[in-house]
Each structure stands twice: as C-alpha cells, then as structure tokens.
Amino acid sequence: MPCLYLIPTPIAENAAHTIPPYVAEIVRELDTFIVERAKTARHFVKSMEPVRPIQEMIFEEIEPGGHSTGKICEAARTVFREAIAAGKSVGLLSEAGCPGIADPGAGLVAMAHQDGVRVVPLVGPSSLLLAIMASGMNGQSFTFHGYLSPKRLELARDLRRLEQTARQNKQTQLFIETPYRSQMVLETALESLSPDTRFAVAQDISGAGELIRSLPISMWKKGQIPSLDKLPAVFLIG
To answer: Helix, strand, or coil here: 184?
Structure first.
C-alpha cells in the first residue's frame, strides 16, 4: 500500500551521517517528494544515491515562495493525490530536521490521514529534542514558541514572560531565531533574565561548529561570552 513517508534531513552541513541507513534506503526508492524547498531537497535526495535519475523525479514545494503560512498549495495536493492513486508512496521533506516539527508539512500529514493514507514517520535528527536532551532542563514538560520578537525591547519582554512561565509551570521554554540574530538574543537574555534562571544555547547541533552551553545567567556573566556564528540555534529557558 502506498504511504506518506516523513523523511528527516540533516540539521547541519556535512552531517549526512545523522540519517539512519534505513531512511536512505527508503529515499532511494521514491520518485515523488513534497518539499519545503526544491533545491535543498534535490541536493539531499541526490546524496542518498537514488535508483532513478534526479531529473525524472518530482519535487513539488509545499508553499512556493516560502511563505510559511502552514497551508498546502493546490499543486502539492494534486501531486500527492495523483501519486497515491497511482500506487506510489510519497516523501515529505523539510528544509532541515523532521517534517512538521518547527517546519511546514503538518497540513499535508493531516490531509493524508483524512484520505486514509498511511503516515510513516522515520527516525532522524530534531534540533529541538537534541537541544532539550543536552540542556539539563526539564524534558518531561516543555513548550516550543517558534520565533520571538525580532526587536530588542519586545524580545526582552518576551524573554521575561517565558521566564515567568518556566518558573510557574516548572516547564522548559524553547524558541528559535534566524542565524543573524543569535548574538542579539544571547545578549538580550543576559541583560533581561534573573541571575538564577537557567539559559541554554544549542547552535549548529551535529555540525562542525556545534556549541551547546546551559548555565544560570549568573554563571554566563562570570565566564567568557561566546561570539555566536550565523548558524541555526535553539534557545532554552528553564
């Protein structure tokens, strides 16, 4: 029976080793993919050494133009349903990490369930879970907030709000930021959060520039403050 495979991709450059061999075997056999970004998806699939020429495969973007509204465009819906009707399985690929986790794709998964199509999640790297694992913070209860305000004053308010929630609920608070604002987030956190609040940065997880540091704000300030690279990062408050 055809199914929808939720295919994980590396979350750092040159980290193909983080993809399990059984995932690579599945990718090699597929020829239809619904993806976040076609260029990145083609590069990843080609690295898995597929049995078919890459030119003969279908790569349909979930939302052409990368609008990230969470909606699935009509072309992607059509490609998915036509492939399933033809008895072919389809792969769902995000830009990095696991589809549907801090990435688009949940709408397609919901549609597959509604259509009675089997959904198969495959094992692979998730920056959020890896960051929680490495933080020393509460992994039993946590909330992911996506992106906070890009403006420094509003960001400080957001951070203090998450700090209060973490204290009241004894719950880890996670968020992400665009790579070029990572340093500003760190600086604002050190200025805004209480000395005994634990704050963590997990940057370029599984990559050559991996940095994972989790300390109370008071200890952050006593040590040398790192200069964060312009790389993907997860931030945690506990």
So the answer is: helix
Per residue in 144-197, pLDDT tens?
999 999 999 999 999 999 999 999 999 999 999 988 999 999 999 999 999 999
Pull the structure tokens for residue 97. Answer: 């990490």
**In which domain, by residue range, is 43 found?**
3-121
The Cα–Cα gap between 141 and 145 comes to 14
Q: What is the three-class DSSP state of 30?
A: coil
Residues 135 and 111 in one domain: no
pLDDT for 207-234, tens place per residue?
998 999 999 999 999 988 998 988 889 9
| Total structural domains within the chain | 2
Contact 83, 60 (CB under 8 A): no
**Helix crossing, 182-192 with 152-169: angle to 10°?**
60
The CA distances from residue 93 to 31, 55, 180, 182, 188, in Å, are 13, 18, 24, 25, 34
Same-domain pairing of 230 and 160 = yes
